[in-house]
From TrEMBL:
Domain of life: Eukaryota
GO biological process, any: glial cell differentiation
Keyword Secreted among record annotations: yes
InterPro entries: C-type_lectin-like/link_sf, CTDL_fold, Hyaluronan_bind_Proteoglycan, Ig-like_dom, Ig-like_dom_sf, Ig-like_fold, Ig_sub, Ig_V-set
Signal peptide segment: 1-17
Protein family (similarity comment): Belongs to the HAPLN family.
Role played: May function in hyaluronic acid binding.
Keywords assigned: Disulfide bond, Extracellular matrix, Hyaluronic acid, Immunoglobulin domain, Repeat, Secreted, Signal
Annotated organism of origin: Piliocolobus tephrosceles (Ugandan red Colobus)
Localization, UniProt: Secreted, Extracellular space, Extracellular matrix
Protein name: Hyaluronan and proteoglycan link protein 3
Amino acid sequence: MGLLLLVPLLLLPGSYGLPFYNGFYYSNSANDQNPGNGHVKDLLNGVKLVVETPEETLFTYQGASVILPCRYHYEPALGSPRRVRIKWWKLSENGAPEKDVLVAIGLRHRSFGDYQGRVHLRQEKEHDVSLEIQDLRLEDYGRYRCEVIDGLEDESGLVELELRGVVFPYQSPNGRYQLNFHEGQQVCAEQGAVVASFEQLFRAWEEGLDWCNAGWLQDATVQYPIMLPRQPCGGPGLAPGVRSYGPRHRRLHRYDVFCFATALKGRVYYLEHPEKLTLTEAREACQEDDATIAKVGQLFAAWKFHGLDRCDAGWLADGSVRYPVVHPHPNCGPPEPGVRSFGFPDPQSRLYGVYCYRQH
């Protein structure tokens, strides 16, 4: 019966000594500071809890480790250490739910979901509760909140994490505007990427991305970036920018998709081979070279971050044929840098080489 009475008692003011709820339940122990012992009164009477996080966005890459800085202090400073509770979570974004990352009390901590085994608190210095995330994944980018809880007082700070990457448009082998939103998510994942966010597409537009075909974004809107307004792309009278069709039905409507791939831990290279290859032969040739056939996202990342520059068209894992150009030159396509595409040729044709990927 005592357990049944606990929940309503939590709502009563002055019910000290009971577990405190702040997204998680915590049980009091003999070592916990009791809210009735005067410490909370001190905090409420002129002592302020302050949480500090960086204002600037942190940039890193897939597979790396990163530290999300978070420190706290009291104003004015207190003479003795206090037992606090720490909670990190990832904020909801583009329709994705909030994700609990880690909670900690003293040396005890618990991590959640996909973060298990990959996160821990630094706690190397007093009042340092920075979060380290190892083996970063594509879906780890976003906004994280660091919350420090002292009795009935809590303060928090925000840390924004971005992965260095490249946005690229992707079209189905069946042609233009063949993908609903869920199929767009799937093809991006198959190419070592995720569906791009609006912020990532906007940044790519600022860097010069110009593409006339509309594509899905992470929030299920459909947009396209235009640097040079022209008749087939909304007309020459409109200003440059990211054009939007707004939200679309995730299952019924069909467009292309904009994918986002991050910098690589491995290496993409054009395989020097005495003969041109079919798609099957291309896969086997990479395997014989202790590598795998490269994905589209990996080729774009190698072009963007490693300066891969080849005028040789090669097979990729999705059955497309492409080649990356950093320094345009005669007989190598248009005068702008980019990843050129030959589309999806007959897999049996022996007209192309292959791009392979070898992980470090």
